DNA sequence: TCCCTCATCTATACAGTGTCAAGTTGTTCC
DNA sequence: GGAACAACTTGACACTGTATAGATGAGGGA
């Protein structure tokens, strides 16, 4: 007999508390942000005592790690879809995944902040490691294919095995500019530069300039031109 | 009569609690990171009750805002010094300040994380607004001078008044790549790419590639070459 | 000299947090 | 049907940030 608490809740046992906690966590993150995130509040929304989640997640870090895993996979899914769309329309795949990275983070800032270290996570968790490796693998293979002038990355060995290739500096720079722009935008660091309402303009500007930047800095011959400057 | 609690502590009153709290905050940040930061722990180290700091900082956010102000000014000082050094040795000023940004963050990761939004700050605080505007002003003027082919930025109006200039996209990208690289490096997101001990190599690599990237993407003619790509 | 004022600090209390130990409930399997 | 076990509750603990009221000492005017 499901009472009004929601489907699956039929008395003492919840039914699917793990999923309910994750849903509640996402809702709390969306409403109150990372700073206002609380394990007890999530348990309250799932209609369960404060100690109940411990059986599924161990502790607070465990729940956040599950959210971070979702975040990584959300990034990967969005990047994959964007790359496929770009291939279909003849656009640049690398620019498309960078823009997808930014848009995904903008759609769920709280989740994105959980992924990128704003609170303690369990970095040994195998599921999260898999999701993280998958997301980074997309960045690696797409950057490499872009530099090689290929239409799309060929199927090959796992990215983590080939990550120490000599061109990983370009991969890091492509990721850095995307991640940096995303982080600064989400954290409102650009607010005193542009009005609140011009977020769309900023996004379009990013895409446009990013194209040029990627084209100029990550071209196949870029790694060979080694100038003698000093810092 | 100063007892063993420290200079200036002569009984009921502390003497310079404000500075002592800031020092304690920096120490706690260095030891335990942002996540382990606690107002009560700082008060404990300053040899003072938990409620004492309220009179100087209002609340926890007030103390963190003071630390963030220090962080902004630390960034500004390091960038100014690096730019002057670059001018003296004939190096690229923009690359020098980007590298200084990275090195300053690496030297005090906890302080850097406080500056960039890992915990609640008082964004209306005038001192912090001044420090933030100063740091960003350096980035703006140096990027603009770099793009104009000048040896150094000329004295002119306040950067905040001219920030909406048409070339602010390039300023944002230069900041983004530096900030993104810094954030990812500090948060250990590159750890599975490179070994723990090769931080120096990564820093050198960053400087070298950054030079090329800045040269290619932020050259004076870069803004004019507007290709018809679509995201 | 005394006393008054006021910023500074202490003591105490309160609601809220994460986590642990022990007990309760329901399911599943023999 | 009973046993074993996972899932959940209850109650407690140490800890947090913050509010309030009271204690302390420094400085200024008479």
What does this structure look like?
Two copies of one chain form a homodimer. Chain A has 231 residues and is mainly alpha-helical. Helices cover 62% and strands 0% of the residues of chain A. In chain A, α4 packs antiparallel against α5 (93-107), α5 crosses α6 (109-115) and α5 (93-107) runs parallel beside α9. The first copy, chain A, is elongated, with a radius of gyration of 21 Å. Mean pLDDT of chain A is 83; it is low at 1-8 and 221-231. Chains A and B meet through α5, α9 and α10 of A and α5, α8 and α9 of B. Chain A binds a DNA duplex (30 and 30 nucleotides) through α3.
User: Could you list the spans of chain A in which at least 5 consecutive residues all have pLDDT below 50?
Assistant: 1-8, 221-231
Tell me, rounded to a whole number, the average pLDDT of chain A.
83
Helix content of chain A: 55-70%
Number of distinct beta strands of chain A: 0
The percentage of residues in β strands of chain A lies in under 5%
Structural class of chain A: mainly alpha
Outline type of chain A? elongated
Spatial extent as radius of gyration of chain A = 21 Å
What is the largest interface, and how many residues per chain? Answer: A-B, 58 and 58 residues
The number of helical elements of chain A comes to 10
What is the compact description of this entry?
The structure is a homodimer of 231-residue chains. Chain A is mainly alpha-helical and 231 residues long.
């Amino acid at each position: 007999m499901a009472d009004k608490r929601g489907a699956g809740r039929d008395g003492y046992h919840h039914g699917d508390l793990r999923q309910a906690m994750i849903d509640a966590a996402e809702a709390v993150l969306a409403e109150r942000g990372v700073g206002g995130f609380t394990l007890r509040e999530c348990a309250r929304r799932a209609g369960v005592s404060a100690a109940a989640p411990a059986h599924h997640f161990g502790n607070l870090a465990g729940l956040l790690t599950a959210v971070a895993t979702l975040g990584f996979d959300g990034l990967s899914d969005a990047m994959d879809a964007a790359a496929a769309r770009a291939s279909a329309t003849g656009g640049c795949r690398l620019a498309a995944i960078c823009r997808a990275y930014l848009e995904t983070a903008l759609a769920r800032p709280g989740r994105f902040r959980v992924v990128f270290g704003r609170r303690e996570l369990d970095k040994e968790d195998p599921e999260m490691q898999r999701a993280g490796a998958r997301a980074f693998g997309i960045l690696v293979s797409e950057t490499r294919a872009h530099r090689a002038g290929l239409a799309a990355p060929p199927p090959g060995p796992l990215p983590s095995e080939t990550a120490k290739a000599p061109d990983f500096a370009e991969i890091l720079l492509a990721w850095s500019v995307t991640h940096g722009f995303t982080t600064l935008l989400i954290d409102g660091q650009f607010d005193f530069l542009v009005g609140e309402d011009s977020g769309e303009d900023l996004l379009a500007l990013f895409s446009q300039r990013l194209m040029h930047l990627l084209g100029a800095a990550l071209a196949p011959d870029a790694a060979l031109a080694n100038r003698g400057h000093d810092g």
